[in-house]
Amino acid sequence: MCAELFHFVAAEVADQVPVTPAGDGSPFEEGARLEWVALDDALRRCAIGEIQDMKTEIGLRRLAEKLKRGA
Question: What is the pTM assigned to this prediction?
Answer without folding.
Answer: 0.73
